[in-house]
Design a protein that fits this description.
The complex is a heterodimer.
Chain A: E1 2-5, E2 10-13, H1 14-31, H2 36-45, H3 50-74, H4 80-107, H5 110-141, E3 163-166, E4 171-174, H6 175-192, H7 197-207, H8 212-237, H9 243-265, H10 269-292, E5 299-307
Antiparallel strand pairs in A: 1-2, 3-4
Helix pairs in contact in A: 1-2, 1-9, 2-3, 3-8, 3-9, 4-6, 4-8, 5-10, 6-8, 7-8
Chain B: H1 12-27, H2 40-45, E1 49-55, E2 59-62, E3 68-79, E4 86-93, E5 96-107, E6 110-123, E7 126-130, H3 134-137, H4 140-145, E8 157-159, E9 162-164, H5 171-182, E10 186-189, E11 194-197, E12 200-208, E13 214-224, E14 227-240, H6 242-253, H7 255-276
Parallel strand pairs in B: 2-14, 7-10
Antiparallel strand pairs in B: 1-3, 3-12, 4-7, 4-13, 5-6, 6-8, 8-9, 11-12, 13-14
Helix pairs in contact in B: 6-7
The chains are: A mainly alpha, B alpha+beta.
């Protein structure tokens, strides 16, 4: 059974798209990330034009992050001041990202930009997470305390001016690196169709030393706002948001996320981080493989978005 | 009946169809046109043909379960003296569109898009069908002039400051046709047209699900002994149905409102999901 996507202008197998939403939702619920880094490549692989895929994943992630953020808000695991500072940078990043995306599309290098950024980001973050979680596992096996918080060891960027105290996260840092972090996440979100949760959560944990649960909750709130903004901006600037595609994805995704969250609670934090690290790294390696192996057909045809 | 059925045998079915088509052609929306053969010498030896063409469905409406549609083109030939067998070429063109064909090559170990050609206002759908191989019905020259077949269809490229078609073997042109053929958007069947009777023919056109929206033209040429003796054309529209059309026009005309609606809808879905699963 197929459903016709009015903006992508092609029929897709509705159950395949729904299952994709379910599977990615499961993973995102389990790890507390948006799952855009999996969803966008899957959609492109299913024949949806990259421009439509990137733009239509935004409303999907707005829905799933709202669903998740509500749960974290109730549990008091969202640092709203931290989210606000991240957001100030994030909105600026999203706007720049939508403009950058439009420019990359005009010069035909969207594919390259997406592939190179995916490889670099996912490779680096995946490796980082794997190394850290293996260390944490080794530490807990040898009987050492699971995590040592050393308040004195602040990196140089945390000592910049404009220092702020974020109570929920139990940190006292400069607002500048936080806003820059938000900007980078917003930019990546708009260009790559990723929420950036898989970057923001580790960044908050390892760079700002925010507790894991609060990192996830705060990241979800940030994602909610940036993805809602990205939906509106993509609809306005690129006209490539497919409402039907987004709806099918979000119904599957929100259901899958609930089961994923339950599965995630049965795992230990460092095991969860190891699994996420492996997943992120394998997506990065997969994209890198496409970039370095000779393509089956070196030619691709794209539509210049105008009809006569 | 096999393609290119023997002449001089008019089956009852064929006769009825011919009569129907003649009526349809005269009064229906798809009106045939007649044209004199190109050469004066041809006019002397070949009969004056009148060609009538009609499409089974003048309008294709895309609804949410649309996954492509098969149309039928019917044609009838009115002729005084049919001693020379007729050949038919049916060319269906979708709305013009501009495409970019990219070529990847290896730069610093990475395969990236390095070279591109722009195909200006070329058909987004192109189907060429005939009752027998093009080479047997017309000379190379005629095939080129009449743009018979994908190989002879003029696909205008932007080459530097100029606009021109290139040789058939051009790799960008070949890749373009190969890619669109793989998506079912470009088709060629040199035995697709079937003569139901000596003067009545039909052919199917398969419109794929991802076919572009817009006006399609059906051009039919009739050849006798390698010379074009008549032409006719018809059109049909592929357009989105009610809901699909409304979504598209909202997205196109008021992007901001559309974006806000989609974003708001997403939040509602997220909220509902959260409430539904909250109890447990």
């Amino acid at each position: 059974m197929t459903i016709y996507l009015p903006i992508a202008e092609l029929p897709v197998a509705i159950f395949a798209i729904f299952a994709m939403g379910l599977a990615v939702g499961f993973i995102s619920g389990m790890f507390g990330v948006g799952g855009g880094f999996l969803m966008t490549p899957l959609l492109i692989f299913s024949g949806v034009p990259p421009t439509v895929a990137v733009a239509s994943v935004s409303p999907y992630m707005a829905a799933s992050s709202f669903s998740g953020a509500l749960s974290y808000l109730r549990k008091g695991m969202v640092d709203l001041p931290l989210a606000t500072v991240l957001l100030l940078g994030g909105l600026l990043g999203t706007a720049s990202g939508v403009a950058l995306f439009a420019w990359l599309r005009s010069v035909g290098q969207v594919d390259l930009a997406i592939a190179v950024s995916y490889t670099t980001l996912l490779g680096a973050i995946g490796t980082l997470m794997i190394v850290e979680s293996v260390r944490a596992m080794a530490r807990s096996r040898s009987g050492a305390p699971p995590e040592v918080r050393r308040p004195g060891t602040h990196a140089w960027f945390m000592r910049l001016p404009l220092k702020m105290r974020f109570r929920r996260s139990r940190i006292y840092v400069s607002a500048i690196p936080v806003a820059v972090m938000g900007f980078v996440i917003g930019l990546l979100g708009a260009v790559l169709g990723v929420g950036g949760g898989f970057i923001l959560v580790p960044a908050l944990i390892y760079m700002l030393r925010v507790p894991t649960q609060t990192s996830v909750g705060t990241s979800l709130v940030l994602m909610l706002v940036t993805m809602t903004a990205a939906t509106v901006l993509h609809a306005e600037a690129n006209r490539t948001v497919d409402a039907v595609l987004a709806l099918v994805l979000m119904v599957g995704g929100t259901v899958g996320a609930q089961f994923g969250a339950r599965a995630g609670q049965t795992l230990r934090a460092e095991h969860l981080r190891l699994l996420l690290g492996l997943l992120v790294l394998s997506v990065g390696v997969r994209v890198a493989a496409d970039l370095v192996t000779p393509p089956a057909d070196p030619f691709t045809v794209t539509t210049v978005w105008e009809r006569h | 009946m096999r393609p290119g059925a023997p002449l001089g045998r008019l089956t009852p079915l064929g006769a009825v169809l011919l009569a129907l088509l003649a009526l349809g052609g005269a009064f229906g929306p798809a009106r045939g046109q007649t044209a004199a053969p190109p050469g004066a010498t041809a006019q002397a030896t070949l009969p004056r043909d009148r060609l009538i063409v009609t499409v089974s469905q003048p309008e294709v409406l895309i609804s949410s379960n649309f996954a492509g549609v098969d149309l039928v083109v019917f044609g009838a030939v009115e002729t005084a003296d049919a001693t020379v067998p007729a050949d038919v070429v049916v060319t269906v063109r979708g709305p013009g569109e501009t495409f970019l064909t990219w070529r990847k090559s290896r730069v610093l170990g990475l395969w990236i898009n390095t070279d591109s050609r722009t195909f200006i206002d070329v058909p987004s759908f192109l189907s060429v069908q005939a009752n027998r191989p093009f080479d047997r019905m017309a000379s190379e020259e005629t095939q080129r002039v009449e743009q018979i077949g994908l190989a002879h269809y003029i696909l205008v490229q932007r080459v530097g400051p100029d606009f021109a078609d290139v040789v058939v073997t051009d790799p960008f042109r070949a890749a373009f046709i190969r890619t669109l053929s793989a998506e079912g958007l470009y088709q060629e069947d040199q035995r697709g047209v079937r003569f139901l009777a000596p003067n009545v023919f039909r052919t199917g056109i398969s419109i794929p699900g991802r076919a572009p929206i817009g006006r399609y033209t059906v051009d039919v040429i009739l050849l006798r002994a390698g010379k074009v003796t008549a032409r006719a054309s018809s059109t049909f529209n592929v357009q989105k149905g009610g809901f699909e059309q409304e979504v598209t026009s909202l997205a196109q005309n008021s992007g901001l409102l559309y974006g806000i609606s989609v974003a708001f809808g997403s939040l509602i879905v997220g909220f509902i999901a959260n409430i539904l699963f909250r109890k447990e």
